Amino acid sequence: PLLLKDFLQDAENSIWVDRFKNLKNAWEWAQAQCIIKDFLNKNKLADLSERVNQIDSSIRSIIEKLASLYSWEFCFERLTDEHWPHMEAWKLAIKRLGKSSKYASRYKLEAQKHLKECQDAIPAWVMPLHKIWDTFESGIKFFDLLIIDEASQCGIEGIPLFLFAQKILVVGDDKQISPEFVGINRETVHFLQDKYLSNFKFKDTFNLETSIFDHAILRFKNKIVLREHFRCMPEIIRYSNEMCYNDTPLIPLRQYGRDRLEPPLKSVFVNTGYREGKGNYVINRPEAEALVNKIVELCQLDRYKGKSMGVISLQGNAQAKLIERMLLEKIGASEIEKRGLLCGNPYSFQGDERDVIFLSMVAAPNERIGTLSKRTDMQRFNVAMSRARDQVWLFHSVTLEDLSDLDLRKSLLEFFLNSKPKKIGNILVEELEKQAKESNRNIIKPPEPFDSWFEVDVSLELLRKNYYVIPQFKVAGKRIDLVIEGRMSKLAVECDGDYWHGADQYEDDMRRQRQLERCGWTFVRVRESEFYIDKHKIIEKIVNKCNELNIFPLNFSLQKEPVEVIEDKSPKNKIENGKTGNKPKGDSTTKEPNIDFPIEKNYWFALSKWGKETNLLNPKERKFAYDVGRFLANKRELTVKMKKWAHSLYLKSQKLGFKEKQ
Questions:
Q1: Average pLDDT over the chain, rounded to whole?
Q2: What residue spans of 386-428 are helical by DSSP H?
Q3: What percent of the chain has pLDDT over 90?
């Protein structure tokens, strides 16, 4: 009826001749389209996915309740009438043990005796190391399995633990803090080794620095390396990967959330900082003041509401104590308690974590700066950097030129100042567009790293909207077809097609998706038939999800924060004890040098594009050229350091033959 109506209204139009010639094909196409749409609407993927999530959540909840009920049932089944009196007697003995020192050994033996009689009734025990010796008799295998957590911190005093169980599981990390004993004579240790351990195969390992984890690595062959990391933002844990875990890098599974603190890495240069004191008592008062003022400022901001905080001194303990006293004066004990605000050295934070960590480097150019390059230094820096969930602030009074190339402080500062952006595939978008249009898809495979032409087509639709798309994104040993990355979050896009995936693999894909969703990932699944029927509708769905996650196209205006510099413009630079500190390097009153470079934004945008097309500029230089263009476009003032880099890059590009209009 609709066709007849249209024809009668415009019958004289010559276009109807061509239309009626192709009427049969058009009619069959419309029928096929109606059938597919009816099928897709009958089983909407979004509704089915939501139902799957509901069922999955219900299953997890039921399993948790069953596990809890079965555990308590197992526990109560083991309890007998003989166990109860001994359990109460053990509680009384432990209570008396805490009150008395005169009869402590007697009460300790009583507690151990009663515990031995009721131990079978308690299937699992959890306690710190020092409680073990008060609770159990040594030399008896009380347990089927003993688990030692944070074993890299446990020293020689933990050796007797190997006598307590039939099997032992040792959990630790030799790249984190090990036992440290200061003031003990090494010659005495060597004498005792020679006297009592002469027949031991590895007698030299029985010292004060070797941990239980080190002993386990030496003696047990069945080592399992855990690769997944759930705490830190990916940018933060990358420092530990580069420094400590090159051979088995940690896979960051915690992805960007909507409340992400931006940027995850932030450095503050205190150019008036100076160091005073010696040894473990060194402090940097201006650096401490700058750090405390920043904490006071952040506590007033809504985006830091409810965020826990911690302060770590990278040199000595005195700096942390100084900052703690200042914080008590500035924000008070109640705010410190509410934030869980702990101030200490890396040892204070081993096994702990905070949302935001503030690092104080302490070192300053007014005093000789030694080199921190020992294994213990590496362990301390690894712990310090990996305590933060969301954000790390580094306060420093030195520049890269002040530090030795071997100093871990230099690698840390370089990491904050020159953190590399993520790379995208080497293929140009124009070339990808050309291949997608001209290639015979029945014969030619899609360009790497794409798995299918379907993925290529979805990527091109998103690239045309200027989104940053990463194909075949690696996570947790698997790959996600496409990931759209923004400053605040990421969105996973899975391209489902029977030809590419198939029914057999679909269940594996969904299982992997549920695992990653529990780690904070958000997924959008695109069916091949649905995409090719109505591309605009599918892309609109993806764009809407991006907007929900604060993922915007690359041309969306987001300003990058410049490096923060704390300057003291007052004439004084004195230490409280009356001695005058040496004038630090990098006087804040230094006049800005006369630096020549183009100030047209288009020049820098063109330079960035040219550097990528010719591959004559490295990724860092291309990114910097683009950032200069953005600064100039938004009429923002470049820092002196940026102007120096811009001048240097300008001279280099001229030598390489770059011209703005090519």
A1: 81
A2: 408-417
A3: 24
611: CB partners within 8 A, 6+ apart: 617, 621, 622, 625, 653, 658
Cis status of the peptide bond prior to 263, with omega within 30 of 0: yes
Predicted local confidence at residue 64, as pLDDT: 92
Residue indicated by tokens 């695992």: 515
> Cα torsion for 327, 328, 334, 338, to the nearest 10°?
30
Q: How far apart are CA 124 and CA 229, in angstroms?
A: 27
Structure tokens at 225: 């390396």
DSSP state of 88: H
Chain position carrying tokens 């299982």 = 511
Whole-angstrom Cα distance, residue 339 to residue 553?
35
Residue 114: per-residue pLDDT: 83
Tokens of 578: 């009356």
Handedness of CA 438, 441, 442, 445 (dihedral sign): positive
Looking at the DSSP assignment, which residues form a beta bridge with residue 342?
310
Q: Distance (Å, rounded) from C-alpha 272 to C-alpha 587?
A: 8
Query: Rounded to whole angstroms, how far apart are CA atoms 354 and 221?
Result: 35
Residue 256 confidence (pLDDT): 64
Amino acid identity of residue 267, one-letter, is S
- What CA–CA distance (Å, rounded) separates 476 from 250? 9
Residue 491 has a pLDDT of 92
Report the distance separating Cα 303 and Cα 294, nearest Å: 14
Per-residue model confidence as pLDDT tens digits over 161-213: 888 888 999 998 888 887 776 667 888 888 888 888 888 888 888 888 888 99
Say how many CA atoms lie within 13 Å of 576 toward its Cβ: 5
pLDDT band at 247 (very low <50, low <70, confident <90, very high): low
Least confident of 65-79, 203-217, 497-511: 497-511
Which helix H or strand E contains 645, and what residues bound it? Answer: helix 640-655
pLDDT in tens, 523-577: 999 988 888 888 898 999 999 998 888 888 875 544 444 556 665 544 444 333 3
Q: Provide the token pair at 517.
A: 């969703």
Report the C-alpha gap between 558 and 555 in whole angstroms: 9
584 pLDDT exceeds 50?
no
DSSP-derived secondary structure letter, 552: -
Rounded to the nearest 5°, which phi and psi values hold at 244?
-120, -30
- Distance from chain centroid for Cα 543: 26
In 3D space, the residue among 637, 640, 241, 590 whose CA is nearest the CA of residue 415 turns out to be 241
Question: What tokens does 182 get?
Answer: 């200061």
Question: Nearest CA to 402 among 363, 372, 430?
Answer: 363
Concatenated DSSP letters for 237-268? HHHHHHHT-SSS--EE-----TT--S-SEEEE
Tell me the two tokens of residue 131: 């409680």
410-426 pLDDT, tens digit each: 999 999 987 654 444 56
Taking the CB of residue 422, how many other CB atoms lie within 10 A of it? Answer: 11
DSSP state string for 266-328: EEEEETT---BS-GGG-B-HHHHHHHHHHHHHHHTSGGGTT--EEEEESS-SHHHHHHHHHHH
d(CA 647, CA 599): 11
Minimal CA–CA distance to 370: which of 315, 321, 430?
315
